[in-house]
Write a structure and sequence with these properties.
Mean pLDDT: 94
Largest sheet: 6 strands, mixed
Strand order of the largest sheet: 1-2-3-4-6-5
Strand content: 25-35%
Structural class: alpha+beta
Radius of gyration: 15 Å
Order of helices and strands: HHHEEEHEHEE
Shape: globular
Number of strands: 6
């Protein structure tokens, strides 16, 4: 991603209102695009962050955020995978995830992928189909107006 892609990222978030309502309780967070391109867990450097913008015929359709070395050196953490609601159920989420997994294997040389599923976002079955399983860890999650729990999942590569 480049700074020029911020408008395209914004356009994807414009078409994620159902997701936003489930995890934040608002139709769209005002800082969603900026947070996507800058978010990092505590203790991680910018060189650990990899943000991807998926396009189809020059239209931005998906986003993926990956942090290398979090929470351990041999792990990469998927912070967000989102496909425009108008393009969901088309296999694009699976394709974007598979590209990210290949990138993590080839370029980051990690042994494990991790992610957190917000309980109010019904995507657990998607991640299970991608080969992830719950770790047993559950953490509090606080969106803008929604309080929930984040269920941590992992996949050994």
């Amino acid at each position: 991603m480049t700074p020029d892609d911020l408008r395209a990222v914004d356009a994807v978030f414009d078409d994620l209102t159902a997701y936003s309502m489930r995890v934040d309780g608002v139709p769209r967070r005002a800082d969603a695009a900026a947070a996507f391109v800058t978010m990092l867990p505590p203790g991680c450097d910018l060189h650990n962050r990899h943000a991807f913008l998926a396009k189809c015929d020059d239209t931005a359709i998906g986003l993926l955020h990956l942090v290398n070395g979090y929470p351990t050196a041999e792990t990469a953490f998927i912070g967000l995978l989102a496909i425009r609601e108008s393009a969901q159920e088309s296999g694009l989420g699976r394709a974007l995830y598979q590209a990210a997994e290949q990138f993590a294997r080839k370029n980051l040389h990690v042994r494990t992928l991790r992610l957190a599923v917000v309980e109010t976002n019904p995507v657990m079955s998607f991640w299970t189909r991608m080969g992830f399983s719950p770790t047993g860890e559950i953490k509090p999650f606080r969106g803008e107006r929604v309080t929930s729990r984040a269920i941590l999942m992992r996949k050994q590569l």
